[in-house]
């Protein structure tokens, strides 16, 4: 009687076997698809940290606009995105690299864009003003200063990274 309890019928054997083999095959097919779908999302965002922008000897005391491209990898999409920076040497000889993106609504600021306000960054969209060091002029639309690029100088070349909000902003 107890021997009969443990016996597996032909039908049960086939069910177990087919379920096992079917499950194994399904896992074999699904795993690459799941991995393909998730891998780019789980991978840390790749991209260039620092990009060569200009030679240090070419940086003047007057802000100049430099355009460069940054490789951006976003999940399955990879592209060279354009960036710009206003770069100059301050009175101490330090390199300052400012984002041209206005902190009001994101237009592009220009150095000396308003002849009535010389030596300022000017945003033509709503009259935003920033001092040379990128601080917003009170009473104009932007309430924060321009972002500052992470920078590094190596072998006479200026490299720029991400533009970060200034402290306290
Ligand atoms: S977007 Fe620059 S002042 Fe409004």
Describe it:
This protein is α+β, with helices and mostly antiparallel strands and 169 residues long. It folds into two domains: 41 residues; 114 residues, Rieske [2Fe-2S] iron-sulphur domain (Rieske Iron-sulfur Protein), CATH 2.102.10. Helix content is 22%, strand content 33%. It is built from two helices and nine strands; from the N terminus they run H-H-E-E-E-E-E-E-E-E-E. The strands form three sheets. The chain has a three-stranded antiparallel beta sheet, with no helix packed on it. A three-stranded antiparallel beta sheet has the order 2-3-4, with no helix packed on it. Strands 5-6-7 form a three-stranded antiparallel beta sheet, with no helix packed on it. The protein is elongated and about 95 Å long. The site of FE2/S2 (inorganic) cluster has 11 residues, from loops. Pfam families: Rieske. InterPro entries: Rieske_2Fe-2S, Rieske_2Fe-2S_sf, Rieske_Fe-S_prot, TAT_signal. This is Ubiquinol-cytochrome c reductase iron-sulfur subunit. Keywords: 2Fe-2S, Disulfide bond, Iron, Iron-sulfur, Membrane, Metal-binding, Transmembrane, Transmembrane helix.
């Amino acid at each position: 009687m107890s021997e009969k309890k443990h016996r597996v019928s032909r039908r049960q054997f086939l069910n177990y076997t087919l379920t096992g083999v079917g499950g194994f095959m399904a896992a074999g097919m699904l795993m690459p698809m799941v991995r393909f779908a998730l891998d780019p999302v789980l991978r840390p965002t790749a991209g260039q940290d620092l990009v060569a922008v200009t030679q240090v000897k070419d940086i003047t005391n007057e802000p100049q606009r430099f355009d460069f491209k940054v490789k951006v990898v976003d999940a399955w999409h990879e592209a060279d995105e354009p960036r710009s920076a206003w770069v100059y040497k301050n009175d101490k000889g330090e390199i300052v690299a400012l984002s041209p993106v206005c902190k009001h609504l994101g237009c592009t600021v220009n150095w000396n864009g308003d002849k009535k306000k010389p030596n300022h960054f000017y945003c033509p969209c709503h009259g935003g003003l920033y001092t040379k060091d990128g601080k917003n002029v009170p009473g104009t639309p932007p309430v924060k200063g321009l972002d500052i690029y992470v920078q590094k100088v190596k072998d006479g070349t200026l490299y720029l990274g991400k533009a970060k909000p200034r402290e306290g902003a």
